[in-house]
Amino acid sequence: MPKQKFTSKRARFLSVAETRTNTIIEKIRILGNCSNRSLYEYSKDEIDKIFRAIQDKLNETKTRFIVKREKEFKL
């Protein structure tokens, strides 16, 4: 599949972000299939650990959009 040509950084962002967001949402939906107790056995602690890891990564990623990165050296 050839690379898509974009007219602007905004157009590229909108295309890539939409695709990646939909992929993540689908993966979360699939993870939800593991909640079926007739097929899987798990503890509350395991579930908490999974969702804590997901939430931590979401928070970290959101911060990258909000906070401007500081330069390593300032006078």
Distance between the termini: 48 Å
Q: SS-based structural class? A: mainly alpha
Cα-based radius of gyration, to the nearest Å: 19 Å
What fraction of the residues are assigned to beta strands by DSSP?
under 5%
- Which segments are poorly predicted (pLDDT under 50) over 5 or more consecutive residues? none
Shape: flat
Number of strands: 0
Main sheet properties? none
Mean pLDDT: 90
Taken in chain order, the helices and strands follow as: HH
Number of helices: 2
Roughly how much helix do the residues carry, as a percent range?
Answer: 55-70%
Overall structural domain count: 1
Describe the protein:
With 75 residues, the protein is mainly α. The protein has one domain (9-66). It is built from 2 helices and no strands. The relative contact order is 0.05. The model has no long low-confidence stretch (mean pLDDT 90).
SSE blueprint and pairings:
Elements: H1 9-32, H2 44-66
Tell me briefly what this model is.
With 75 residues, the chain is mostly helical.
Search tags:
mainly alpha; 75 residues; 63% helix
